[in-house]
Each structure stands twice: as structure tokens, then as C-alpha cells.
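A common beginner's mistake is to predict each chain separately and then try to dock the pieces by hand. The better habit, illustrated here, is to supply every component at once so that their relative placement is modeled jointly.
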Amino acid sequence: MSSVHNNIFSEIRQTVKQIPFGYVSTYGNVATALNLRDVRLVGWALHGNQDPSLPCHRVVKKDGHLASNYSLGGWQEQARRLQKEQVFFLKPNQVDLAKCFFDLTRVE
DNA sequence: AAAGTGACGCATT
DNA sequence: TAATGCGCCACTT
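With all components supplied together, the output reads:
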């Protein structure tokens, strides 16, 4: 990853930062909020992230399953962070979107 | 400079 | 129901 992003990547990060504590959003929802045609860009922007102010663990797949390739420690680490925020889980690797989904298209 | 690739998701076979 | 294809960005080689 490079230094400066006056591009979609910074937009993605801005959007992800709007997900409140205790809630999650999905890759697709972020993409829709930004009118992106390629959802993979969201994952790309978060891949290898080290910024603690960027809650990348709050982004999951559309059905609530955790990121299959979560960078730092795999989905188990992502699950640990979410449980710390008292997010509801249906299964060890799947959150309850019905209770914890935050729609980013509503706030933008 | 060009081609390959990816924390996904939807439509098509 | 499973498998495949595409998206068209940004980054890497």
C-alpha cells in the first residue's frame, strides 16, 4: 500500500469509520453507499490495514459471515474484536445482521 | 507498459 | 444447488 489516497480508498475508509461501536456493515453496503461497481475494492482498501481508528473488523460479508481472509489474525481475531463490542453472533464465524447491521446508505 | 490479482456479490449456467 | 463469469478499481510485478 502506498502513501497518499485522494481516491476511492480514502472514501472507503471514511465510510467504514462511520460504522458505530457495536454495529457492523457489509462490503456490499459500503460499495453501494459509495456507488462503487466493484465490491472487491472495499476489501482491498482494508487489506493490510494498520490504522487503529479504522474499524475494519466491523465489515462482514452480506450474510453476516466474517471476512474469509481477514489480515491480522484471521476471522478469529475479527470475531474477538466484535465480541468485545458485544455484537450478537449466530455462529462463531457469523454475526447477527438482523440485530447489528448498520446501513451506511442511510447516513450518507 | 501490460497483465495479473483481490477482506465480495450478483447474475447466469 | 453448485460452478462460473464478471465487475473496471488500485496495486504489484
